[in-house]
Amino acid sequence: MERPEPELIRQSWRAVSRSPLEHGTVLFARLFDLEPDLLPLFQYSGHQFSSPEDCLSSPEFLGHIRKVMLVIEAAVTNVEDLSSLEEYLAGLGRKHRAVGVKLSSFSTVGESLLYMLEKCLGPAFTPAMQAAWSQLYRVVVAAMSRGWDGE
């Protein structure tokens, strides 16, 4: 698989990384719009969220958003050597599988990531950028999916 275009990835991520929590919230709000069945997977101390808004404003979930944005940051930082993240990403895949996330949900996460980038960057989010991010995300998900294979 050919590598994503590093400069396009880095350039577009700079704008997002200035306010990761804000943009991460856009990503998850979109995710819950597209796949509402994911909401019950997020429970803290046995508390079930009554709505996406309830979830998106909880301190525990904001912590999860921060972690997700840090994983994306790590992928951006290592875009030219994503194989260095393979073990870490496979472990992340195992954690997600353990809490009941289906591998198929990651395609919705990918759509939500592209939506967030488009909202953040507006017209600056070019088709070439979209292609680069789609490629980067495919590589990340391929590594995470090893967590479902039990390798």
Automatic annotation (TrEMBL):
It catalyses: Fe(III)-heme b-[protein] + nitric oxide + H2O = Fe(II)-heme b-[protein] + nitrite + 2 H(+). Keywords: Cytoplasm, Heme, Iron, Metal-binding, Mitochondrion, Oxidoreductase, Oxygen transport, Transport. It is found in: Cytoplasm, Cytosol; Mitochondrion matrix. The keyword RNA-binding does not apply. One of its GO terms (biological process) is cellular response to hypoxia. It comes from the Eukaryota. One of its GO terms (cellular component) is mitochondrial matrix. The keyword Translocase does not apply. Its main location: cytoplasm. It holds the Pfam family Globin. One of its GO terms (molecular function) is oxygen carrier activity. Residues 1-149 form the Globin domain. Monomer. Homodimer and homotetramer; disulfide-linked. Mainly monomeric but also detected as part of homodimers and homotetramers. Interacts with 14-3-3 proteins; regulates the phosphorylation of NGB. Could interact (ferrous form) with G-alpha(i) proteins (GTP-bound form). Monomeric globin with a bis-histidyl six-coordinate heme-iron atom through which it can bind dioxygen, carbon monoxide and nitric oxide. Could help transport oxygen and increase its availability to the metabolically active neuronal tissues, though its low quantity in tissues as well as its high affinity for dioxygen, which may limit its oxygen-releasing ability, argue against it. The ferrous/deoxygenated form exhibits a nitrite reductase activity and it could produce nitric oxide which in turn inhibits cellular respiration in response to hypoxia. Belongs to the globin family. This is Neuroglobin.
